[in-house]
Amino acid sequence: MDSRVMDLIYWKDTERTGMVLTGLVVGLLSLFQLSIITVVSTVSLAVMCFTISVRIYYQLLYVLSWGDGQHPFKSYLDLDISFSGEQADLYMRKAIVMVLSAVDTLKSLFFVGNLFDSLKFLVLMYLVTYLGDLCNGLTLLIISLIALFSLPLFYRQRQEQVDSFIGKIQAHIDNIKDTFRRLAQGGGPPPDPTPGGAKPKVQ
């Protein structure tokens, strides 16, 4: 299942990925005008009409001896999506660990376990309020979906340039964080990286 998802994200099968992405985007865009119940029921009706029509068509070909009678959706029916007991237990434990880790992180942020991290979270939430005025959650979901199907492929094709650009940004962020950290500790120049500190020049 993971390999199939990665194949979709990296456009291994262009036609299938295009169909999936188009269907998801159109479905999300329709939520701007219709309720989710209407969208789900309409999509379900469209899919059922298509699959039943194809099934009847193949059955008719078999009756007229123009086909082998093979089920047109046999590959989908035979697709194994079940989990063994060990797999289900593993995924459940991972989900519990992720939830508990998220709760622990939020607890530390809201109750100021680390002042610097809580201030960063405060600024982030302040910026999110402006983002909420510009667009809603559905718009962000559509943008995230498009980014999911475009950014990984772009990164694979331009990995060296992207890594170089991100490295420069990370260096600037580290400098800013170091400056704020030194200000929080009372200021002062950055520590001398040479062993034993600065040494007098020899004439």
Automatic annotation (TrEMBL):
Localization (cell): Endoplasmic reticulum membrane
Under Gene3D superfamilies, the record lists: 1.20.5.2480
GO (cellular component) term, any one: neuron projection
Reticulon domain span = 5-203
Question: Which parts of the chain are coiled coil?
Answer: none
The membrane topology term of the UniProt record is: Multi-pass membrane protein
Please give the residue ranges the record annotates as the region Disordered.
184-203
GO BP term, pick one: endoplasmic reticulum tubular network formation
Protein's organism: Seriola lalandi dorsalis
| UniProt-recorded name of the protein | Reticulon
Coarsely, its chief localization is: endoplasmic reticulum
Q: Which InterPro entries match?
A: Reticulon, RTN1-4
Q: Where are the transmembrane segments?
A: 20-39, 136-155
Q: Which UniProt keywords apply?
A: Endoplasmic reticulum, Membrane, Transmembrane, Transmembrane helix
